[in-house]
Amino acid sequence: MAADTQTAIARSLLTNTAPPCLPAIAGVTEPFHIAVAHDKLDPQFRSYRAWMEMLYSGNLTRDQVATVFNYRAGHHDIILGIPTVYGHNTHEWGGFLSYGHGYGLLQHDFNREYLLLLYSLMAHQYTRGTWTAPETRLADPKRFAAPYCTPAQMTVPLLATLDARVRGACG
After folding, report:
1. DSSP class of residue 61?
2. What is the pLDDT along the chain (171 residues), one digit of tens a residue?
3. Distance of alpha carbon 89 from its chain centroid, rounded?
4. Given phi > 0 = left and psi -120 to 50 = alpha, else beta, which region is 76?
C-alpha cells in the first residue's frame, strides 16, 4: 500500500508550475492557485485541508513535505509560518488545522519552519488575556475572526506535545 501511495504521488506531481505542486487530488492537471482562480467551485478549493492531513499522515517523504510547503509558501498560502484556508490568497490563517502542517515539519526536522508556526500561532491566533482561539483569523487584526473553536484551542498544546514526543523518540 505504501508503494502504491508513493507511485500515485509521483504520477500526480505537477512540474508545470514553479515551485512544483503536489496536488491534493490525484490526476488534476492544473495547480491549486490556477484552478481556484478560475472556479471557486473547483474541488481543489479545499486543498488546504487535504495538505494539512497529508502532512499529518506521516506517509510523505521529506522531499514531498518540502514540495507542499514550498508550493504553498511560494503562492502566499503560508503567512508568518501559518497555513491559510478557504481558497487561494485569502490571508485567513487556519489555526484549527495547523497541527497537521506542524507535524509534517517536525517529523522531517524543518525546525525553523516549525518554530515559526508555533510562535506565530501563539502570538496571532490566540486572544490576549484569555488564550482562547477562533477557528480562523484574518491576518489583518482589525478584521473579523471566526468564532471560538475547540480544535483551534488545542493546536498549540498538541504541537508542543508532538514536539516532545518526536524529539524524545529521536533521541
Report:
1. -
2. 999 999 999 999 999 999 999 999 999 999 999 999 999 899 999 999 999 999 999 999 999 999 999 999 999 999 999 999 988 888 999 988 899 999 999 999 999 999 999 999 998 888 877 888 888 888 887 887 788 888 888 898 888 887 666 666 555
3. 14
4. left
Q: What share of the chain is helix, strand, coil (3-state, %, to 5)?
A: 55, 10, 35
Nearest to 94 by CA among 139, 54, 56: 139
CB 152 within 8 A of CB 137: no
Output the CA torsion sign for 69, 82, 159, 5.
negative
Gyration radius of the chain over CA positions: 16
Spatial distance between the Cα atoms of 78 and 80, rounded to a whole number of angstroms: 7
Q: Which three cell numbers stand for residue 138?
A: 484574518
Q: How far apart are CA 39 and CA 56, in angstroms?
A: 28
CA of residue 42 relative to chain centroid, distance: 19
How many C-beta neighbours within 10 Å does residue 140 have?
A: 9
What cell does 70 get? 514550498
